[in-house]
Design a protein that fits this description.
The complex is a heterotrimer of chains A (about 475), B (about 160) and C (about 425). With about 160 residues, chain B is mainly α. Chain B has helices spanning about 1-5, 15-20, 40-60, 70-95, 100-105, 110-135, 150-155; strands at about 25, 30. Chain C has helices at about 1-15, 75-90, 115-125, 130-135, 145-150, 175-195, 240-250, 315-320, 325, 385-390, 410-420, and strands at about 55-60, 95-105, 105-115, 160-165, 200-215, 225-240, 260-265, 275-285, 285-290, 295-300, 305-310, 330-335, 340, 345-350, 360-365, 375-380, 390, 405, 425-435. The chains are: A alpha/beta (about 475), B mainly alpha (about 160), C alpha+beta (about 425).
Chain lengths: ~475, ~160, ~425
Amino acid sequence: MLRALTMLLASGAECAFETIVPIIIDPDDSAADKTRTVEAMKKYMAIREKLDFSNPNLNKFYKTEIKPVDGMANFGFPLNNTRDCLFKDFIKVGELSKESRALVSLLFSEKNLNSDMKVGFKGNPNIGSVVLNQFGTSQHYKDFANGFKEGDRIFIISSIFGGTGASGFPLLLKTLRSDKSSQSWNLISNAKIGAVTVLPYFQVSQDDNSGVDSSTFLSKTKSALAYYENNISKNGSVDALYYIGDNIPASYANHDGGSEQKNNAHLIELCSALGILNFAKMSDSELAGDTKHFEYGLDSNDDAIHSIVFSDLGKKTKEDIQKPLTQLLLMHKYLTYKLHDEYRHQPWAIDNGLNKAFFDDDFFSNVQAFSNYYVEWLSEMSNNTRSFSPFNIGRIKPLFSLINGKSANRPWTIIPFLLKDYALFDNALNSNFKKWNKAANKEQKFMEVFYRATEKLVQQKFNM
Amino acid sequence: MDFLDWIYSFKFYGAELFDHLKGWDDEIMDYNPAYYQFLSIFVSIFLAALVIFICYYYIGNNPRFNRWWNWLIELVLVFIFAGWWGYHVVAVDIQNGAIASSIVDKISYNNAIFFGFYNAILASIIFILLTILLRHWSKNCKHSPCTSFITKMKKQ
Amino acid sequence: MLMKNIVSSLLFLTAIIVCSCTGGKRTSNVSTSVTDLGENNSTTINSSNSLPEHPIINVYLENSGSMNGYVDGGKTMFQQDVYNYLSDVDISGIPSEMNMFFINSKIIPQRDFQKSNTISDFINRLNPNSFRVAGGNTATTDMADIFKLILENTDNDIVSIFISDCIFSPGSVSSPEAYLTNQQIGIKENFAKYCVDHPNFGVMVYQLSSNFNGRYYDYMNKPHQYNGERPYYIWVMGNIYYLMYLKDRIPNKKFQGSGVQNYWFASNFQLEEVAYSVLPAPRLGSFDKVSKSDIKNMKPDENGEFMFTIAANLRLLELVLGDDYLMDTGNYAQLINKELSDEIKIKIDRNTVAKSPATHNISLKIVKGIQREEIKVILQCLPPEWGFEMTDDNDTQLTELNCNKTYGLKYLLNGVQQGLTARGSGYYMYMIVNLK
């Protein structure tokens, strides 16, 4: 979901937070999903570092800052003693008394005790709830707490049917609300906290050698929901709780972790990310009182709809994501298919000094790389079940038939047959934009011109 | 008209043709302002260059046609039109016997060809001047055929 | 069309005010207009003195003994040609009256004739006897005195026609050359004095030929019998307005018999304006024409030669001077920056361009380097070449070689030319071209 959030923020989706500080709690350092999410966020940071969002700049691409907690490498909250260590060694079963050992054997199966935790808890929240108790005492938590300021909010993302997320969410919430070891414990305990808990939306193939069994997802979900009801919702420890899931699950290969656990992006993750944006927009007064509960639904009468486009989304969601996602995709298409033919000739590049040196430089490499991540993310969603395929991703021309289910306007021009597709794009890029910051650096100008041009195009072509 | 006389004063197309176009009239043994053709010829080629310039830079103004060779095509169009027009004006006069008897023997279709060529060069210069002076406000083509000097100055 | 141009030109001439001589200026009060080449604007010049439309024409026939061989009661070519001419004059409608006179040492009036048949009468009665009976000194001829008498009886409204063989009679003087020179000076003086009060005065001289049978007297006044062709002269003197009219009405081709052998016109007038313009061609080298009379940026051709051509409307001068005079480059002079110069070669051609009002093209070739300068071309009043060719130095014996010549003729013509040009510019017109 962090990946989806990163993509949304990169596209310029409105976020009331100025800064997002992701903290990934996952013992599986090599998880492919985590790795590529971290890569994307690093690219995001590298790009944003060169940009300026003060007046008169209008660019919203990469506007929201993403940064890690100081000292936290790769956004990860490291868990001690989970590598090359079996659970039984973690709890030091061998050192326990006989009575304690007996209790342990009641709580944990042999399989549980012999689990190695380097790829996570493999769908066993009972393990996670023990291991993750180290939150409040870790130095990294203290670093996070020291950086927490008044007005900051916390949003917890977790799956209800997994291991790490299911166990970590209530534990983390408890720590946040009750820990008094840090200097800012008061700010944290009184901060607005939101959470999204993801119900099952995929299943994995049956594999007896794997620790993950999707047939247990529902039962785990039920028991977790009951727990949340009594221990989270009723006591108001979270201000907003978002639920999301899907009854037509996607099917993934059964990898319990590591570099092979690479699931395609799903609409559920995107919608979960929307929960964060929604939480950010809500004022303190709106969040006051009992826990607010939210569910997500599509604007479609067809429960079995398999291929979702923008028109199937609710009006609010469309307003939030349609324009920015389209803009970012337009930019990607131009950078991929036209840039190298045109930048030497077009005023938008020449006037702003965007020459070969610029396009060979690291900044542009990062932009191009992130752009590819973005398209990869869109492709995965469109190939998933249910698919979210709002765009014709691979089509080069005609450029403005890129939105599925929505045709482009054909505004009247003097020479209509000459100014279309990428020519129209260049025409927009070459616009004489008002209130242009002439003193900005090249990276800022580059991003600014593409933002303004794509904004103009989506308005002109799609009335967005 | 002194300016126009000067512009057309490089008489490699024929001194007598120059006199004819300047309005030589045997009846008054002097240049007759009513027969002065340099103004109409110059205005025609200036307008042609201007129209093609405006079409290229401001009406067409297409980001796909802002290469140097697109500009060259426009220049060639200007060249061809002005060359043809210059030739045509003189050829019609020759055909209609509208040249003064005292100089008609010294003016032939060859002179018309040379004058057309002269006109074409002139129109090309006009087009180039228009390009240098007035292209900077073109949205998509202002760096055609080369980077605008205003941009170069700003970069310095 | 030609008449229209001539009348316009004549009217213009009557309006010419400027006289190079001092003294009163007389100009016609007839409304005049000037039509310049290619321009439709006119100038109207009025004067206080009037010039009648029809002058009195007095005809003076020399009745000295040398004229006897020309007359024989109307049968000679002389008589017929003179009769023809005077008739043409009479019927031209120009004269208000014509009076016939004999002249030698004095003027001997004949009857006033109002009608043309009286001219016939006058002519038919011309014979040696009537010459003798008329009186005066018929033995010798003092040309200077004769012209003096005639000029005394000529005025702005009187035209004099003098018919004579124009032979000087030095007689037994010790130096015939000195005599002739003195005659020339006398004639010059007479004409010069006349010109003081008479601007726009001109002289037309026709040399004709007739059969002659009788005695002629050589320069020593010795008689010789001769039967053959001999020249004689008709002089028409008066205001050039009338002369032009007469010349126009009676062109040379109207003279019968053997026709006009030679012709000369001289006058003290100068054309105020000549319509002229530098042409673009023909030329050598190149230049830019600034105005009708200014050029600039002169460059020689590959041979280093520079030439330009002026087209001029000399219709008026052509009428009185004749095309031969205008076409003779010897009658022109070139001045560079007001100094006479021989560094400009001149060539005259007729202008054959149909629409052009110009009659002649004057080409000027500069043989030295081109500089910024003022070039002035003038058409001079000069004695005719034929005057020298037709002068006999020794008429004691008439042969085929000298039978058509006249003794001392050049002294006569030179004297007239000198007298006419004594007080004026000496040229009929000028054209200035500025090389800038």
